[in-house]
Design brief:
Length: 192
């Protein structure tokens, strides 16, 4: 392996660790880059073989987790709303599991596990940003809860996507490892 390839691998590794730990969320990004790198290497190898009148191959691109999630390859219909599968929010200092509350008017809101979920049919006061006199102001809006998707249900939807390519042991181990990483980060760095 060339020195350039080793450096590239290290950069991708640290990028992946940074994404995983600091929570921009897309650990799949590194997988896409790795797959693109493999595809680039294979296509250049095929080009060399073609020039030498060697056998030609049909290069097929395999699906990545990002493509599988965005294209809705699982039981439910296609949707580019990737956030509906996320069971953790990594944006705040202390990460929380999040449930989705959907209101009758179609408005959606994430509830962290530290906040009590409302009941279906309950009236909830929400805050919307509204434009008044060319300024954004907060407006309190009453909404009725029509559906609640818990973080466990969101995770199960994501596991449905994962099952297209991976077995149950791989999926559960990946989630266990990620959950332990988030909890360790919360206890060691975020809370103190």
């Amino acid at each position: 392996m060339s020195k350039k390839m080793k450096i590239r691998q290290r950069v991708y590794f640290f990028l992946w660790i940074g994404l995983l730990v600091f929570g921009t969320g897309c650990t799949e990004l590194s997988e896409v880059r790795k797959e693109n790198q493999v595809l680039t290497e294979k296509s250049s190898q095929l080009q060399q073989e073609r020039e030498g009148q060697v056998k030609q191959y049909q290069l097929k691109e395999k699906p990545s987790p990002v493509k599988t999630t965005a294209n809705g390859v699982c039981k439910e219909a296609s949707s580019h709303e990737v956030g509906k599968h996320i069971s953790w929010t990594l944006r705040p200092i202390v990460s929380n599991r999040i449930s989705l509350v959907i209101y009758e008017d179609g408005h959606k809101e994430d509830y962290p596990d530290t906040q009590e979920l409302p009941d279906i049919g309950e009236e909830v006061q929400t805050v919307d940003m509204v434009l008044q006199d060319e300024k954004l102001v907060n407006k309190v809006v009453s909404r009725h809860v029509s559906k609640i998707v818990t973080w466990q249900e969101r995770r199960e939807k994501m596991k449905d996507v994962c099952r297209n390519c991976h077995n149950e042991v791989h999926i559960n181990n990946s989630y266990k490892q990620f959950d332990n990483l988030v909890l360790l980060y919360n206890e060691k760095f975020a809370k103190p």
